[in-house]
Specification:
Blueprint: H1 2-14, E1 21-26, E2 33-38, E3 46-53, H2 58-72, E4 76-81, H3 83-86, H4 95-103, E5 107-112, H5 125-145, E6 149-152, H6 155-163, E7 169-170, H7 188-191, E8 207-213, H8 222-235, E9 239-245, H9 253-260, E10 267-273, H10 277-286, E11 289-292, H11 303-310, E12 315-317, E13 339-340, H12 356-370
Parallel strand pairs: 1-3, 4-5, 5-6, 6-7, 8-9, 8-11, 9-10, 11-12, 12-13
Antiparallel strand pairs: 2-3
């Protein structure tokens, strides 16, 4: 969420707008701090950030945040709303009152980044009960802030909000890894030296390179993916190279072991782990296909999926959708049209390019229409 907010603010400032950032529930600091941070791109400019610990009582957070907001005199306060960001169980009792006190009489915008629990058909009684309490918290926030503009990333969340009586516009997500302007086609030479001779020159055309970026969900059936990928590759006269990059998560060990085991002439796998933004971008530019282990209906809220698309990759959604009432898996925003559910690997890479300018443009346009 931090990188998302920083990058959006940077783009808005580049268009002549002024921005101030407040982290109202920061789990990474122990004491309030106020600082200026420079942009991602080369610039002498910066943006001010107030960080308020999530453990600090609201009676102390509210006046600090309101003082900064009043000094800035914003036209809009944009709440990048993640319910679990305020409470580990997503129970924001009194949250609407506290946020509205920070906002005062300013106009509020809300980006709804995640939903409450218990909506899928397979939810347990405990999940449904928790979801009921979380939904009440969301209702309280919406009532207190009364945002003239409400955004969300996914059609599923749009539907759930509509059932609460709140109409949200879809605002696509941009990637969490900027596309490097300096692609290195020999990047794999250092990272995977034994495979580099096969993935360069004339032999490169005989390989499909799959990449999975970020968290690997425990529910992902890696063995099924591997079997289907090899079968599709053999049919096309190809071989498969698989790369995992980024932080796969604490539960990903057995899954990655399945992908590394029994490597042969038709299957090679490499686990790179955490890397710099530059190296991740180079890796995505090297690949032929992105692989998503997440539920298809939530991919339009995934910054890693957006990053794959920004780097020109078709994305294979390898998990079945959960079942939701009144929701069909085909409800994908246009920017997610690069996602395929089967191994229709006739899709080819497109020209890399950031989604951020388009997202920022729509963000500004939607706010201006509401003024």
């Amino acid at each position: 969420m931090g990188d998302y907010t920083w990058r959006l603010a940077e783009e808005l400032i580049s268009r002549g707008h002024e921005c101030q950032l407040i982290a109202a529930a920061d789990w990474h600091v122990q004491a309030p701090s106020f600082s200026t941070r420079t942009f991602f791109r080369e610039s002498d400019e910066g943006i001010q950030l107030l960080r308020l610990p999530a453990t600090l009582p609201w009676s102390e957070r509210v006046p600090r945040a309101r003082k900064v907001a009043e000094a800035f005199v914003p036209d809009w306060i944009s709440w990048q709303f993640v319910l679990y960001g305020f409470d580990s169980r997503g129970l924001g009792f009194g949250l609407g009152k506290n946020l509205s006190e920070i906002a005062g009489d300013r106009r509020n915008h809300m980006m709804f980044h995640e939903s409450w629990a218990g909506e899928s058909a397979g939810s347990t009684f405990k999940e449904r009960a928790l979801g009921l309490l979380q939904r009440r918290s969301v209702c309280g926030v919406l009532k207190k802030l009364a945002p003239p503009v409400l955004h969300t990333h996914t059609p599923l969340y749009q539907l759930l909000l509509r059932e609460l009586g709140a109409e949200a516009k879809l605002l696509p997500l941009f990637g969490n890894i900027p596309v490097t302007p300096y692609p290195r086609f020999d990047w794999l030479a250092d990272k995977w030296p034994e495979m580099y001779p096969h993935l360069s020159g004339d032999e490169r055309a005989s390989w499909w390179v799959f990449v999975i970026f970020g968290t690997i969900h425990p529910e992902w059936n890696a063995a099924d993916f591997r079997q289907r990928a090899i079968a599709a590759a053999e049919q096309a006269g190809k071989r498969c190279a698989f790369i995992s990059i980024g932080r796969p998560g604490d539960l990903a060990g057995p899954t990655l072991q399945q992908l590394r085991a029994d490597q042969n002439d038709s299957w090679r796998a490499l686990e790179l782990g955490p890397q710099s933004d530059e190296d991740i971008s180079q890796c995505l530019l090297t690949a032929d296909f992105g692989v998503s282990p997440g539920p298809p209906e939530l991919l339009s809220k995934s910054g890693t999926t957006a990053a794959l698309i920004e780097h020109g990759l078709p994305v294979i959604a390898t998990r079945e959708s959960s079942v939701y009432a009144k929701y069909t898996p085909e409800m994908l925003v246009p920017e997610m049209s690069r996602i395929v559910r089967d191994f229709n690997l006739k899709l080819v890479k497109t020209e890399p390019g950031s989604l951020l300018p388009g997202v920022a443009g729509q963000f500004i346009e939607d706010l201006q229409r509401a003024q």
